[in-house]
Amino acid sequence: MFSQGIAVQERLGDTGDHAMPLGEKSSPRGGGLFQYASGTRPLGGYVIKRGVGSGGFGEVYYAISDAGKEVALKLIRRNLDTELRGMRQCLNLKHPNLLSLHDIRQDDSGDTWVVMEYMSGECLETELADHPQGLPLQDALVWFHGIAAGVAYLHDHGIVHRDLKPGNIFCDEGVVKVGDYGLSKFISCSRRSGHTESIGTIHYMAPEVAHGRYGKELDIYALGAILYELLTGHVPFDGESVGEVLMKHLTAQPDVSKIAEPYRSVVARALEKDPARRFATVGEMATAVGGGEQRAGGGEQRAGGATEQRFGERGTESIDGQDGRATGGHNDSDAYTDQEPIALFVALQLQKLRQRWQQSSLHPGAKRLIVAVCILLFLVTAEIVLPLTMLALIAYGGYRMIRFVYRLCFCPIPIASPTVAAFPVTVVKASRVSVSSEASIPAFVIKPLVRVTDLIGSLLVAAAVTAAMCVVMLLILGYRGVSLQIEQCAWLYLVSLAGAWFVLITAKFWEGSRGERMVRHFILMTIGLGLGLVAFGMAEVLLVRLPIDHDLANRAAAHWVPPVFYQDSRPMAMAYMAAFATLLGVLRWWQDADPLRSTRLSLWSLLVTVVFAYIIATAWQFPKPWLMMVAGCMSVSVQLSSPWVPTYARLRPQRKTTV
Amino acid sequence: MALSDTKPADRFMLWVDAVGGYWVCLADELIVGQPGDCGGADIPILADISSRHARIRRDGEGYLIDAFREVRVGGRPVDPTELLTDGSRIEIGPSVKLQMRRAHPLSLTARLDFLSRHRTQPPADAVLLLADSCVLGPRPQSHIVCRDWTREVILFRHDEKFYCHAAGYFEIDGVVCKIRGQLQANSRVIGEGFSFSLEPVERKSVVD
Q1: How much is the pLDDT for B39?
Q2: What pLDDT shows up at residue A657?
């Protein structure tokens, strides 16, 4: 994209901008409306060439001095002595990560102009607009550490920036520079009096501003908000109106669940409502963010390194390829120490692909055509692709299992961390569930009696939901031309219900506590053995014969599954127990019953459950559709019948404790 | 360049407020080289290159580059001529990297973006090779993408004269125009939500 120069744009109008395609950003005010035209000379010695941006404080122009030096001229409309003194303090600050101020001058009509370094590079706001999903980690760290170094220098000289925002941060020739620092006091003051100037920066404004506190913690909060936006692509608190955003700054907790550790806890701490609980210094925060070698101390070195790759070569998407990515990959492995390299690689490639897709300048029609062709290709080749994918997934699952056991034996410490995952699916679940931070858990430790009544309610709901699910299954099967006998329906219903009840009862015991994960898996596996027996017993009592794929059963059962499992290709007690024990032992069923899960009914969780049921049934040669149906019924009824606290309600008890 | 000139020079600076500065060339043949007092470089780049390093010319429906010195396109050395298409990466000398952009499929106008840290002299954000018309607007297909604009503005040539076309009313040098208006060599255009200026670039000494 084009260089934006020092664009200071209002951010109020961009509530949904980041979701929009490139170049379709709408703004309340357009590019025009500059007081001085190209070629005018309001300030002696400089010719204005074009306007760069305008904000509440005045306008910024790109100008060339008589000798040919490029500068940015900022016109300050109101100039009170106290504010000018604040700006003059900053005139001689020198730091590679600060935009340098050359001079402050007055023109003939008495207006004040700040003469400063012109940045031809992109401003962070533009960069963020180009990356609606957040910047690649490597770039985000370069930006963050650059900003942090500049702000740390300001703090070291007793100056609080007070107006940190992406529109004030630039990258030129690979060096990140923070601008607008001298003026910030001026802007903050007018903001307090409720002028419209404030709306530009509310997304990064700390809550204590409401009480008139302007300390260093303000900048730490803004840094936290910027880091959040760098990593996720959107601001921590957004809303339809200024009031809504301000209210969220004051009361709401940021949703940090999408951010990987260690950044998650850094952002959470920097965005604490209470200034005393934030990082004490910028340096401390930068250390916590890590990626030490790319600290701003190495800013100059970076300028010639990876940053150059990225920022020095403007306007291309194709360039952030191999080199940048290679170092990025290295760094990511620091970030997700407990992530598995293959999954990480795939995730990175997917992210890259998504970015290129979003940034490509293809016509929307052409994009739709490509998608259509892809879907068509998939449909045509599904016969081959699906089994291959399944095979790859199974192989990968085995690999993850071995890796997990290996890590369990040789590196015991990371297991305690909630992000360690035995299976790819659980990575997602882990990050989801961590929303239920310890802070909010105590609020949900309920009296035993209430628990019992809660549980009974859940069990009754589960009975109803399971019945409904069985009807759904019947309809699906009916659609496929298979009709069930009445005793098969009864078996399906009773087994699913028993499974759901087992899970609900067990999960009730574990509710509100963290618990050892492997122990829970083991207990559930034992319960699964019982469920298998129940299922077998039901089948015997009801005289159900589960229809089996005879070919497969005969062929595979002969050499893979022990003979006690099947008689006349009919599953015996052992087969039931094996299948159900695996089904309950492998998945984290208690998360489906967690009142603090992210959504009441997660289709993703349902999908994972059914896919695992398929794999397990294949492994034990158990009649596939039956295990899958039971697992699906169980997943849905557990999720729908167990209590769930909506996200907005989670804050309430917490606030009560702080008041 | 006198103020009364009705015809814009064959190269000028286009200063688009809140967007950027563009070096606009109208000629069909353009010399790329180092800026200098005696040089006739149409695209003067402050870099370690010769004063007449390469020539970019419009030919029918496309662009060609002639190498006088070391030039590579897409990594391959050019000897002596190579076709330039949308996305072509041009390396001039050891370090200058440019990218050809033909944003609008129906227009012959192209844009040269700097991929390396070099810039023209006087400095511009990109070079615009203006053939017949040039679109300024919010869409990515515009020759000059102006994100915050709400409408498109088209600059076009007709009979050696230069016009500005935009929906609704706008002002050229203080005169209100509707839909279309003729531009002078150093016109300033102000519309609802947009403004830009033309500035002729003097040739110090023309050696053609």
Answers
A1: 54
A2: 34
Name the strand (E) or helix (H) holding A380.
Answer: helix A364-410
Beta bridge partners of B43: B32
Q: Residues of B with CB below 8 A from A32's CB?
A: 17-18, 190-195
Question: What is the residue type of A353?
Answer: L
Across A484-493, average pLDDT: 84
User: Strands B20-25 and B126-129, how do they pair?
Assistant: parallel
Q: Where are the alpha helices (DSSP H) in A157-281?
A: 184-192, 216-232, 242-251, 263-270
Region for residue A377 given its phi and psi (left: phi exceeds 0; alpha: psi -120 to 50; beta: otherwise): alpha
Residue B150 with chain A: CB contacts under 8 Å:
26, 30
Q: Can you tell me the distance from the alpha carbon of A26 to that of B150, in angstroms, rounded to the nearest whole number?
A: 7
Q: Are strands A570-571 and B96-101 parallel, antiparallel or unpaired?
A: unpaired
Residues from chain A contacting residue B21 (CB–CB below 8 Å): 49-50, 62
Most A CBs within 10 A among B120, B147, B164, hence the mutation to make, goes to: B147
Residues of chain A contacting B123 with CB distance shorter than 8 Å: 70, 120
The side-by-side arrangement of strands in the sheet containing A169-172 is A122-123, A169-172, A175-178
| A71-80: pLDDT as tens digits | 999 887 765 6
Q: Out of A14, A139, A163, A172, pick the active-site residue.
A: A163
Ranking A238-252, A434-448, A449-463, B174-188 by mean pLDDT, the lowest is A434-448
Secondary structure class of A34 (helix, strand, coil): coil
Q: Give me the long-range contacts of A480-487 (CB less than 8 A, separation at least 24).
A: A485/A544, A487/A542, A487/A543, A487/A544
The answer to whether the beta carbons of residues B49 and B33 sit under 8 Å apart is yes
Separation of alpha carbons B61 and B83, rounded Å: 11
- Judged by CB atoms closer than 8 Å, whether chains meet at B190 and A32 is answered as yes
CA distance A33 to B196: 10
Give the residue from A264, A595, A582, A271 showing the smallest Cα distance to A418: A264
Instruction: Select the more confidently predicted residue: A449 or B178.
Output: B178
A39 at the B interface (CB within 8 A)? Answer: yes
CA distance B16 to B32: 24
Cα–Cα distance measured from residue A294 to residue A94, given in angstroms and rounded to the nearest whole number: 20
Scan residues 85-104 of B and list those with Cβ closer than 8 Å to A: 97, 99, 103
pLDDT, tens digit, for every residue of A137-171?
A: 888 999 999 999 999 998 888 888 888 888 889 88
Instruction: Using CB atoms, pick whichever of A23, A29, A68 lies closest to residue B145.
Output: A23
- Give the pLDDT of residue B135: 92
CA distance B7 to B4: 9
DSSP string, A313-378: STT-STTSSHHHHHHHHHHHHHHTTTS-HHHHHHHHHHHHHHHHHHH----HHHHHHHHHHHHHHH
Average pLDDT, chain A: 73
Cβ atoms A63, A47 nearer than 8 A: yes
With 80 as the cut, is the pLDDT of residue A33 above it?
no
Q: What is the pLDDT of residue A161?
A: 83
CB pairs under 8 A between A and B: 123
Q: How confident is the model at residue B148 (pLDDT cuts 50, 70, 90)?
A: confident
Grouping H, G, I as helix, E, B as strand and the rest as coil, residue A481 is coil
Take residue B132 and report the two structure tokens written for it.
Answer: 């017949």
Position A356: which residue type?
R
CB contact, 8 Å: B192 with chain A?
A: yes
Q: Give Cα B179 distance to the centre of its chain.
A: 23
ipTM: 0.81
